[in-house]
Amino acid sequence: MSFVGCCTKLSRSVKPKSLLARWVPGWPNALSRAKEDVDAVCANDPAARSSWEVVLLYPGLHALWLHRAAHGLWTRDHPFAARVLSHLSRFATGIEIHPGAEIGRRVVIDHGMGIVIGETAKVGDDCLLYKGVVLGGTTTRRGKRHPQLGDHVVVGSNACILGSIEIGSGARVGSGSVVIKPVPPNATVVGVPARIIVPAHARFDAALDHANLPDPVSEMLRSLAGQNQRLRDRVASLERRLGVVPVDGASEERLPFDGDELPPVHGG
Fold it and tell me: With respect to CATH, is domain 3-196 assigned 2.60.120.20?
């Protein structure tokens, strides 16, 4: 289709008078929600020095506002115009949100370059998304195929949440994690593929401490190495009591890897 044809289709799909008649009564509510968005950014980003700075210079906020307009067009059966506005928003902010996605209130996109949110994704209220987050689908079939995030969910930088799975309210997704299974409320998941941290010692005071995330794999390896060494020590003690001479001193041999070289228990 030529550029002129696209413009003609866009003009036919959108009737300015009808849109104004629908949108003008909603301006007070829109301004109230915009103020909520600005306050949420100021509360979650210590680099924000003023409300005007946030309004003018935060692309994550601009992407959310443009998405609301695009989503309004999408729900009013103007899909082509919605996709055009979404595309312009992607070009301007580096954040790609499909106009069909549902975004809640007071959502904060911090350093949002590279974020991708799919058509059937849902993001609850008061969520915090860092740069590079992907809420993607895993099937080509139509229908709900993207993640469903509850309220107060924090997703770290470059994390991928794939498929039609639910992320419970209050959950935390560590940076770089790949989530392919549902996450219960208030849980913290890290790794590739993401695993729930057990025991649940990972409720952080900060929204998400990127430098202090536990590693469940290293904790398991450390635990197994410790158990193995304790068993070896017990066997050696029993051999000494029974007067059994170990073959070539095998029972006294220490493991070359005892877990001390693993990352600290609480990350970092």
Answer: no
